[in-house]
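Need a sequence for this fold. Nothing fancy.
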């Protein structure tokens, strides 16, 4: 008898008391829209990991389509956002911020914590490249060139590490990779 009682306690899934984490199927899309709206307004949300992964797909898609600026893309953005504040933040702040970044506008940070009720792993989902982000993102565009030039000039070890990227970005002559080009030095290395 004890074996069957313990088996019932261990049983998970459909029979668990906290199984329904989401509402009915026809209401889930509305929940995703509201969460996406809140993410754009607040720039960071704390939620279960699986839900963050679900919202991340839509957040990436919204920013990608907003950057395109075609009538078709604008229609997709309008269908996914529900408030004018979120639209305003998207077009006035996020699109200019990510003009050099082609994708990966969001990141999920695992908090290594769980909910007591149902042991869901919790995570932060946030947009990158904003002043309040938890961890700085890799730079892109001109900021990336400056970062590579500074790292390349810092040490021999970094020269070996960044030589391929420095050649690709045009900071170093492939025939003479010992030093940065003079124009790259004066552009990206301002020494006081």
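Here you go.
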């Amino acid at each position: 008898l004890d074996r069957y009682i313990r088996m019932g306690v261990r049983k998970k899934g459909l029979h668990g008391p906290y199984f329904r984490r989401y509402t009915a199927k026809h209401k889930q899309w509305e929940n995703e829209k509201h969460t996406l709206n809140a993410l754009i307004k607040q720039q960071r949300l704390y939620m279960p990991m699986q839900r963050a992964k679900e919202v991340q797909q839509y957040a990436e898609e919204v920013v990608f389509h907003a950057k395109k600026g075609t009538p078709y893309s604008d229609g997709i953005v309008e269908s996914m956002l529900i408030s004018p504040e979120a639209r305003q933040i998207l077009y006035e702040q996020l699109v200019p911020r990510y003009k050099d970044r082609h994708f990966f506008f969001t990141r999920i940070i695992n908090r290594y914590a769980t909910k007591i009720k149902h042991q869901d792993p919790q995570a932060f989902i946030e947009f990158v490249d904003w002043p309040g982000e938890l961890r700085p993102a890799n730079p892109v565009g001109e900021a990336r060139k400056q970062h590579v030039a500074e790292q390349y000039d810092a040490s021999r070890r970094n020269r070996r590490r960044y030589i391929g990227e420095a050649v690709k970005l045009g900071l170093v002559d492939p025939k003479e990779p010992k030093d940065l080009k003079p124009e790259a030095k004066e552009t990206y290395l301002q020494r006081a």
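For context: The chain has eight helices and three strands.
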